[in-house]
Every structure is written in structure tokens, then in C-alpha cells.
Amino acid sequence: MRTIVIATQNPGKVAELRALLAGLEIEVLGLADLSSRFDEPAEHGRTFEQNAAIKALAYAAMTGLACLADDSGLEVDALAGRPGVDSAYYAYPGEAEARQHPRNVRDPKNIERVLGELEGVPLEKRSARFVCCMALAQHDAVLATSRGCFEGRIGIPPRVPAGTHGFGYDPIFLVAPDFQYTSAELAPEEKNAISHRAHAARAIVDKVRALI
Ligand code: IMP
Fold it and tell me: How far from chain centre, in Å, is Cα 116?
């Protein structure tokens, strides 16, 4: 394995994984570094693990390279784990409808739905976590998977939404163990060091290291 392509258009994610994989003599590319354009595979999995594997296998087949993909979202215990794999479009009937709106419209709508469903639930019962699963695939096989969690609670208005950093549900997510700040109130470097993505990335990098 000489090259790994990260299944993302986000240069920040590529840079983060490139830094974590430094020293392994593996070239780390993003989709934007490849000359062809690839269709995004539909994510029909019921779990983050399934969606990460679907993406990794699809891009490995399309690019002919080893591919690392991730899937992430928010699980709220009082909502039986929802929004889960529907996190990106929770306030919409489906992914296609949600994609017609920019992120700065979708994110507040999704937040509004979660806060509405938690109305009347006391703070100690509002436990939640961000989850990130990663999968590495080559040819038609998944070679490694990992899961990372970032624990917290969904705050109660008017304390939340608060904070200007991050994206998605960050403005309503009070970070454990103190629940003093939302993840949107943390500096980006602070959040990136302890996030679900960081945990999942470190775990899969360890597995990649063992594979080569
Ligand atoms: P994706 O896996 O990057 O597509 O993320 C799916 C959705 O989960 C996002 O659209 C967000 O709504 C939510 N999400 C994932 N990670 C985070 C995070 O770090 N902060 C806030 N929301 C997140």
C-alpha cells in the first residue's frame, strides 16, 4: 500500500490524516487531488460502520487505490440514539431534499428539531455523543475499521445554541466532563484534539501501521 485516498473533498480532513500518517511512507491524497471526478455513493447503511465501509469500498473500486472513508453523526440517548446516521438531514424528509439547502440553513433546522424533541428533558438526561467510524478498503475488501466517540450533553435553551466555531450540532453540544462549554465555543484546535474524528483517526492509523 503506497497511496491512500481519503474519501473527502475537505482539505482540512486530508491534512489532519496526512499528519497522523506521517512517517509511514504512504502518500495521502484527497479526492480533489485526483484528475477524475467521482460520483458520491449513496449512503444507505443503518450504522456509521456500514456507511463508512460503503464509501471506502465504492471509492476504492472507482479509484483503484486504497481508500479511507468516514461517517459521523450525533447520538442522543433520550432519543434512542437519533439523529444517528440521519444527522446531516434530520429536519428533512431525506438526504436529497436536505442537499438542496446550504449547510448554514440545514444546521439550524436540524438543531431546532433536536431541541424540540428534548423539550422538558432535564440536563442530566440529555447525554449524547458524536460518533465517527472509519473504514479502510482496498480492491473489494475492508482491511480495517475504527470508531471514536466524543461525549457530552445537549444543552437547554437559552444557554444553547452558543458558540461560533465548528458546524452541525456543535452549538448545542456541551462537552463532558464539565459541560461548561459547547463544542462550538472551543477553539478548533482544542476540539480537533479530543473529537470523535481524532479518536477514530488515531485508532485506524494504529491499525494501518500494523498492516504495512
Ligand atoms: P459527516 O459524516 O461529516 O457527513 O457528518 C454527518 C453529520 O453529523 C454532519 O452533517 C453534522 O450534522 C453531524 N456531525 C458530525 N460531526 C460533527 C461535529 O464534529 N460537530 C457537529 N456536528 C457533527
Answer: 23
Residues 6+ apart with CB under 8 A from 17: 6, 28, 68, 201, 205
Q: Which of 10, 71, 87, 114 to mutate to test the pocket of ligand 1 (most atoms within 8 A of CB)?
A: 87
Q: Quick one: DSSP state of residue 87?
A: G
Block residue for cell numbers 456509521: 48
Is the Cβ atom of 89 under 6 angstroms away from ligand 1? no
Three-state DSSP state, 126? coil
* Contact in structure between 184 and 159 (CB atoms under 8 Å): no
Q: Domain extents for the chain?
A: 3-211
Q: 97 is written with which cell numbers?
A: 431534499
Of 33, 39, 71, 178, which one is the catalytic site residue?
71
CATH architecture assignment, domain 3-211: Alpha-Beta Complex (3.90)
Q: Say whether 170 is catalytic.
A: no
Element (H, E) at 4: strand 3-6
Rounded (10°) angle between helices 11-20 and 196-211: 50
**In whole angstroms, what is the distance from residue 179 CA to residue 115 CA?**
17
pTM: predicted TM-score of the whole model, two decimal places: 0.94
Tell me the per-residue pLDDT of 1-53, one tens digit each, with 9 for 90 and over.
Answer: 799 999 988 888 888 888 888 888 899 999 999 988 888 888 889 999 999 99
- Average pLDDT value for residue range 196-200: 95
